[in-house]
Specification:
The protein is α/β, with parallel strands linked by helices and about 325 residues long. It has a domain of about 210 residues: Rossmann fold. It contains nine helices and twelve strands. The strands form four sheets. A six-stranded parallel sheet has the order 2-1-3-4-5-10, sandwiched between helices. A two-stranded parallel ribbon has the order 6-9. A two-stranded parallel ribbon has the order 7-12. Strand 3, helix 3 and strand 4 form a beta-alpha-beta unit.
């Protein structure tokens, strides 16, 4: 990425904070003159006038559209609003960008875009081979629609807009609040609590038998920026770890790294979701030289250490202060 981002202006739309942070740091280090992270509360990207105002104010050379990536599963009471927002954000942003001198745009999709019955490992050529899993169908189809729009703008206007499919990102700075939908922070939280409370048993939802693909946030960010610089294809491009990990194995690894030595129980009444999910990253390796560097065990250790240190600081900050008294 030597020189590619020098003196460029980049807009990043509202995605997971820890991914935004690492991307912004890498862009600044690469010489960007300005990086703007767009928060939903400050700019409604589903409204044309607000998108145009954003582009006029920031005059971006590049746009990274992360909004909607990594979001929790949508509840029935918000399904229509969520689908409308997802579709309109991408529609308005892509259309405005291709008409207002944006040099290039990258849209980040997730593994939910793939058909529920797609062959494993998941390959880009199978993206439109069927419907996504029922619980994620609307989100997955909305992201696919943005890929079709990007292709249409490329054909009609020559607009350079690429579509990336990134797997489950994790790492320091991830969201650890109760109810998070990402499995690694949820397991770290659970096992750290168990160690501190002296619990002898930990019960986890599901059977532990499914497999997933986990990519450290540093590697994920590197892949996104490499694609923004080097990838010019009209088809999706996968960004994953290249390693299929069982949830059983993941839980045991996190338990060991946190120091938990008790029993792990599984509650099969919780749904497992798809049996296997791993991305084929062969095209990304060939097209942009993408090769993840951080091993899962190292990334998990780093994440656990960050969580413990951060939680300790937050707890200390909320403790009541004792006034000093003279003897």
């Amino acid at each position: 990425m030597d020189g590619y981002f020098t003196r460029k202006r980049v807009v990043i739309t509202d995605g997971p904070a820890f991914l935004e942070r690492v991307l912004a740091q890498k862009l600044v280090k690469s010489g960007c003159s300005e990086v703007t992270v767009v928060r939903k509360a400050a700019c409604d990207l589903s409204r044309r006038e607000e998108v145009l105002r954003l582009l006029k104010q920031t005059r971006p050379d590049f746009i990274l559209h992360l909004a909607g990536w990594g979001a929790r599963p949508v509840r029935a009471v918000e399904a229509a609003d969520s689908l409308y927002s997802e579709v309109m954000m991408a529609t308005e942003l892509i259309d405005a960008a291709c008409r207002h001198d944006v040099q290039k745009m990258a849209i980040l999709g997730n593994i939910r875009c793939y058909p529920a019955n797609a062959p494993v490992p998941l390959r880009e050529k199978d993206l439109f081979g069927g419907l996504p899993e029922a619980s994620h169908a609307a989100q997955g189809m909305a992201k696919r629609l943005s890929l079709l729009q990007a292709r249409a703008c490329r054909e009609q206007y020559g607009f350079r807009c690429v579509f990336l499919v990134a797997t489950n990102a994790y790492g320091p700075g991830d969201a650890f609040e109760a109810g998070t939908c990402r499995v690694i922070p949820a397991l770290v939280h659970k096992f750290v609590d168990a160690v501190e409370s002296g619990a002898k048993e930990v019960t986890l939802g599901g059977t532990g038998s499914p497999t997933r693909d986990f990519l450290h946030v540093e590697d994920c960010s590197e892949g996104i920026l490499l694609a923004l610089e080097r990838y010019e294809g009209p088809d999706a491009l996968n960004l994953g770890s290249g390693r299929e990990v069982g949830i059983h194995e993941l839980a045991r690894s996190i338990a060991r790294l946190t120091g938990y030595s008790g029993q792990i129980l599984w509650d099969a009444s919780y749904p497992d979701g798809p049996t296997r999910r791993i991305l084929d990253i062969g095209r990304a390796q060939r097209e942009i030289g993408f090769r993840p560097q951080i091993k899962l065990q190292d990334g998990l250790r780093e994440t656990i250490e960050w969580y413990r240190a951060t939680r300790g600081r937050l707890e200390a900050a909320t403790q009541p202060k004792m006034a000093a008294t003279g003897a």
